[in-house]
Design brief:
Layout (H helix, E strand, L loop, with lengths): L1 H10 L4 E4 L1 H10 L16 E4 L6 H11 L3 E3 L11 E2 L17 E2 L5 E4 L12 E6 L14 H9 L5 E10 L5 E6 L3 E4 L2 E4 H9 L4 E11 L3 E10 L7 H15 L8 E4 L13 H8 L15
Parallel strand pairs: 1-2, 2-3, 13-14
Antiparallel strand pairs: 4-5, 6-7, 7-8, 8-9, 10-11, 12-13
Helix pairs in contact: 2-3
Length: 301
């Protein structure tokens, strides 16, 4: 895959690329230093856009190192029809925004971070990402033949707002950080821990190429994080030592409240056609519950 990736960029003189972080991580796993790509001329390549899922900071840094171009993330949903946040260069947004953000608000959107009691949270505090109504033109107007579900799912919990069902936070400069779906926030003994934040900490370990974190049921704490990790090619290290290092990395970056101790090394993580992790199926598998393998959550590589 990595050879075809760089060859296509070079052969067709690609100026800008729009792709999912999963594709980048797959290339990095097979060729950590992008040695195979160095034979291709990428002088016309100017910008790399990532989308479709959260891009961890380590993957972002790798992209900048290898491609030597601005790497820009943004956030939108099928329901909205257009970006909610982005790096709008024409509006003066920076080409070098802070790592981990998905940009600033696009005109037409008023995003607020609320807790479960419908109260605004402090800056850099994880909460529910909602959009103050009305939504701008182009956003969805309903669900096919299911008006009741449309109202219940998106507008009932936070009256006056569209519930994105995503969790994240805003910084002092107005950058939005989308961490995970609300369902992917793991409640560990009363502490709300983002699966995305744990994945980012795990991926910061030099040996890890890809990672998925889900909540495993625990009698004492309710749930605890459970990580599935894919290693980079050529990694030769004792597994027990590696697992200890990964656990220590999460403890250092997230804190002991995460109660993170369970890591399993796997060859590949299943992804949907759009590159997303089928977390509900993985969580069911980890917890010994029935799960369904569909056309959308088979392994696509």
């Amino acid at each position: 895959m990595q050879v075809f990736f760089f060859r296509v960029l070079s052969e067709y003189g690609v100026v800008a690329l729009f792709t999912a972080p999963t594709a980048i991580r797959a290339i990095r796993q097979q060729d950590p230093e992008a040695a195979l790509g160095k034979q291709y001329n990428l002088t016309r390549f100017r910008t790399l856009f990532v989308a479709g899922e959260r891009c961890d900071v380590d993957t972002l840094k790798w992209c900048k190192k290898i491609f030597k171009v601005p790497v820009l993330d943004h956030w939108w949903q099928t329901e909205t029809g257009s970006p909610i946040t982005a790096s709008c260069i024409g509006l003066g947004n920076s080409l070098t925004p802070p790592p981990g953000q998905t940009g600033k608000l696009v005109p037409g959107y008023n995003v607020v971070i609320l807790d479960d009691n419908k109260q605004p949270v402090k800056v850099k505090t994880l909460g529910n990402i909602v959009v103050k109504l009305p939504l701008p033109p182009g956003a969805f107007l309903g669900l096919w033949k299911n008006e009741e579900l449309y109202k219940e799912l998106y507008f009932q919990k936070f009256p006056g707002y569209y519930d994105t069902l995503d969790a994240g936070y805003m910084d002092e400069e107005g950058y939005l950080y989308v961490m995970s779906r609300v369902d992917d926030v793991i409640n560990v003994a009363g502490h709300r821990i983002s699966a995305g934040a744990i994945e980012e900490a795990v991926l910061s370990h030099m040996a890890v190429a890809d990672c998925a974190v889900v909540g495993q049921e625990d009698r004492l704490k309710g749930h605890v994080p459970f990580a599935l990790c894919v290693l980079k090619n050529g990694i030769d290290v004792e597994e027990e030592q590696l697992l200890e290092e990964i656990v220590a990395r999460v403890r250092e970056e997230i804190g002991p409240v995460a109660a993170f101790r369970k890591v399993v090394i796997v060859k590949q993580i299943p992804k949907t056609r759009s590159g997303k992790i089928p977390r509900s199926a993985l969580a069911s598998l980890v917890n010994g519950k029935p799960y369904k393998v569909t056309a959308s959550n088979r392994i696509y590589s």
